[in-house]
């Protein structure tokens, strides 16, 4: 799963090669650590729209898990400090604790990578 | 504040300490190993992220390298109002960049870009942004509320070894 754009990858390779290498490793790890990559891709599309200030439209009718995940992502990107238990509960009901932990870590990676991408693309020459 | 998942519910090596966790830790260590930004500015960025994300764990540490460089609790108190604080212009700019990245990257304007480029090289800009990404990893823990402070009685020393791995150190002052 691609976390950062090719432009950001090239910039990081030149400016912070160790971080670039670890992000590349994580892209491979995400594909094989048991986290649903289709669910992550859905979250990624949502984060793209949200960070761009666009309205996100679901591509199709979402499953309960997907809906719960997107609702969590809304709070995660707006203000994780204000996350409520009822926003986590739908995922906790469908995933075991290990799956939930890994999904949350993956959501962090996807969301923060997009922030990194957007920021570097605007600030670096 | 109660955790949303019990700490003993996780299987070591499957989630906590699992492949993804180890990969994120490796990225975090790579971020820490970069040293083009001074320790005080790095600590200000770290604690700004902790404050914004409400990471109790991060907020309970003080990085020893920053303390050695003169970081103190007056600085910590001033982070919330850093634009009027007695920080260097470069440190304030780094915090503005941090805020832009963690709040609304699309709001970065030409003035901020110029300000950042006036103070920092491209390598330093990349380091700041990678640091912000690294210090935002606690968002996953905060979402599950499994980031209790290292201690509720005192601050704790945080040291990084040569590989960039964290080592929890001695108690510091009463918090």
Judged by helices, strands and strand pairing, the structural class of chain B is: mainly alpha
Query: Which chains have the largest interface?
Result: A-B, 51 and 52 residues
The average pLDDT value of chain A, as a whole number, equals 96
Stretches of chain A where pLDDT falls below 50 for ≥5 residues? none
Q: Which term fits the overall shape of chain B? A: globular
Brief descriptors of the model:
heterodimer, A: 125 residues, mainly alpha, 6 helices, B: 175 residues, 51% helix
Summarize the topology:
The complex is a heterodimer of chains A (125) and B (175).
Chain A: H1 6-15, H2 17-32, H3 37-52, H4 64-79, H5 85-94, H6 97-123
Chain B: H1 19-33, H2 39-53, H3 56-59, E1 61-63, H4 64-68, H5 73-78, H6 89-102, H7 110-119, H8 122-135, H9 138-144, E2 154-160, E3 166-174
Parallel strand pairs in B: 1-2
Antiparallel strand pairs in B: 2-3
Helix pairs in contact in B: 1-8, 2-6, 2-8, 6-7, 6-8
Task: Write structural notes for this entry.
The complex is a heterodimer of chains A (125) and B (175). Chain A is an all-alpha fold. The model of chain A has no long low-confidence stretch (mean pLDDT 96). In chain A, 76% of the residues lie in helices and 0% in strands. In chain A, helix 1 packs across helix 2 (17-32), helix 3 runs parallel beside helix 6 and helix 4 (64-79) runs antiparallel to helix 5 (85-94). The longest helix of chain A has 27 residues, at 97-123. Chain A starts with 5 loop residues before the first helix and ends with a helix. Chain A has helices at residues 6-15, 17-32, 37-52, 64-79, 85-94, 97-123. With 175 residues, chain B is mainly alpha-helical. Chain B has helices at residues 19-33, 39-53, 56-59, 64-68, 73-78, 89-102, 110-119, 122-135, 138-144; strands at residues 61-63, 154-160, 166-174. A three-stranded mixed β-sheet of chain B has the order 1-2-3. Classes of the chains: A mainly alpha (125), B mainly alpha (175). At the A-B interface, helix 1, helix 2, helix 5 and helix 6 of A face helix 1, helix 6, helix 7, helix 8 and helix 9 of B.
